[in-house]
Amino acid sequence: MTHLARWLKDNEATIVPTWIRAVRRKSERDRALTTRQLGQELLLSYFDCFVKAAATGAYDELEALVEQIATDRANKQYNLDDVLLIPFLLRETMWTQLTASVSPAETLELIQAAQPIFERSLATLVRTFAKVTAVALRQRLEETEFLTRRLAAATEETDRALTQLRTLYELSRVLSSTLDINETLNLIAEELANVAEINRCVIWLEDAATSELYVAAARGPASDELADVRLLLHGRPSVVVEAFLSRQIKGISQIGDGSHPGEVLAPHFVGRSIVALPLISEDQSIGVILVDSLDRTRSKPFDSSTIDLLHSAAEQAAMALRNAQLFDEVKRFSQELEQRVKERTQELERANRDLAKLDKTKSDFISIAAHELKTPLTVIRGYADILLKEDRSAMESEYIDNVLRSIIKGTKRLQSIIEDMIDMSLIDSQVLTLRLEPVSIGTIIELAVGELGAAARERKQTITVEALVGIPRIRGDPQRLYQVFVNVISNGIKYTPDGGRITISARLLKAQGTLKEDFVEIIVADTGIGIDKEDLEHIFGKFYRIGPVELHSTGRTKFKGAGTGLGLAIAKGIVEAHGGRIWAESEGHDEVRCPGSQFHILLPVKARRSLGERKS
Q: What is the sign of the dihedral through the CA atoms of 515, 519, 525 and 530?
């Protein structure tokens, strides 16, 4: 048994009653039946055959039952709408149950598995219904022909009636052969244009978006000259618009040059008589059939029998057009539903990727925290054990001072790590508060360089601060900006080999073009190993470090030394809290050629509000 068949059997108790109730509710003919009676009208058998077809892939039993249903309902004079409701509402009920009970991916799988069965059911229903209807019409035609042969005094009107009946039969037959809207319209126009009294047939449909009627199909001599004619529903008067709005037949006899100046279509029908018949579905006009005649021998080129023929043809055409529209709507709905399922599946996949990324961030945090906290804790505990276990009276004071300094250094490192994590938490929750005041960028950079000078000298590196000429004081938080430059410059020291250079420059960007205010741009350039293109965006993420943790040496400014992976993320959060932006540029990563990197820090001269204030 296939997955679809198994699912149908498991959900039969929910699907079948809901489906039968829906058929009873939407079909006027079936509304008089109880749910039990309607289920016994071959619907329960249809569901069983549907499940068998899903399980075995064989359609013989299903097609036989569908033919029986179509035949039975056609003989009971059901219209095609009521017949098509059976598979349409079963599919709708299944889709509703699927979306409520299984995943989008499984929904898509089951819908695709069921689609061929529905298509086979629909095709068999339409074909059989058309066949039975054609047989009924043929029987009526044969009866008429038999009576006509029995009549001794068959008149021209009788012959015409027979011809018109044949036309209706042919029209019904061809309309039953397709559910394509364009093909349906062309078939209607073709059949009516072949009637002896009719020279040309044009079908107009409503364009609801523009409140116009446009030509959807045209047949007959010179019909292409009307192809681009559009009629405003509330514009100049026209017999076509009048028929559409009034839902009544309208006509004009023998249009001459200048005889009907108020008729917008008159120039296209000089020397002709025209009749416009509204296409009505569910008490609403959906279009108009316009026919014309060139017969000048009679004052009324369209007699009552021709008008009756056109009226009957219009009724059949309206029903066929409505059926085609319903089929097109169902097909479009199916495509839209499939697209929505795909979109939901993609959304779930994105959510899964985000969850995986979040889980990786959590794992990175645990790994990095364990790695970074382990070293200072080991130092503190080691020196504490020395003081505890050894005889302190025998120790020299200088030795004890070195031990205590090492312990203090370890606690400072622990404090720095914890403060970084607290700052990152404040940035993530958007409650980082800035204490804004006028500050000098040059002074803050000098303080940061002074803080890192010893590390640079130890690595034999040169830090150069170019003259900051024309750089105004900005409004910012000096302590937080100091953090930014320490983190960015120390990152340059860390990823620059011994003997390298770090250069710091700045420039003022005046408000113009896309810049709505004045900005100061600070550039920290190094001669380090560079950054891969794909890592340029990621390096500002939390806990992001290139390469595995265990391959990094320990130390804040050692070459490729380990860290919490929060320095650049904190710098980004502080810069953005000021209303600025930070980004990196590099030709790529190369530990031999050392292409270097540039970090650009863009700060507004007048800092914006803090993250917490912006959130509130």
A: negative
Measured CA to CA, the distance from residue 319 to residue 416 in angstroms comes to: 80
Q: What are phi and psi of 252, to 5 degrees?
A: -135, 135
Angle between helices 567-577 and 478-494 (to 10 degrees): 150
The residue among 159, 168, 171 whose CA lies nearest residue 140 is: 168
Nearest CA-CA partner of 302 in 198, 201, 159? 198
Interval 188-198: pLDDT, tens: 788 777 776 78
pLDDT lower than 70: segments of the chain: 1, 148, 150-181, 196, 256-262, 294-301, 303, 305, 354, 357-375, 392-394, 543-557, 561-564, 608-616
In angstroms, the CA 106 to CA 335 distance is 17
| DSSP string over 366-406 | HHHHHHHHHHHHHHHHHHHHHHHHS-GGGS-HHHHHHHHHH
Token output for 147: 């009576």
What 3-state class would DSSP assign to 9?
A: helix
Q: Are 276 and 201 in contact (CB under 8 A)?
A: no
Sequence-ordered list of residues with C-beta below 8 angstroms from that of 540, at least 6 positions apart, any chain: 568, 569, 571, 572, 582, 584
Model-level pTM?
0.41
Q: Is 393 exposed, middle or buried (0-12, 13-18, 19+ CB in 10 A)?
A: exposed
Contact indicator for 54, 68 with CB cutoff of 8 Å: no
Burial, 111: exposed, middle or buried (Cβ in 10 Å; 0-12, 13-18, 19+)?
A: buried
Amino acid occupying residue 1? M
Residue 227, φ and ψ in degrees, nearest 5: -60, -35
Distance CA 188, CA 201 (A): 9
Pair type for strands 501-509 and 462-465: parallel
Q: Which residues contact 482 (CB under 8 A, 6 or more apart)?
A: 444, 447, 448
pLDDT of residue 362: 61
Let me know: does 184 contact 178? Beta carbons within 8 Å: yes
Question: What span, in angstroms and rounded, lies between the C-alpha atoms of 293 and 302?
Answer: 8
Q: Note the pLDDT of residue 301.
A: 58
Written as six digits, the tokens of 282 are: 């569910």
Q: Taking a C-beta distance cutoff of 8 angstroms, is the pair 207, 229 a contact? A: no
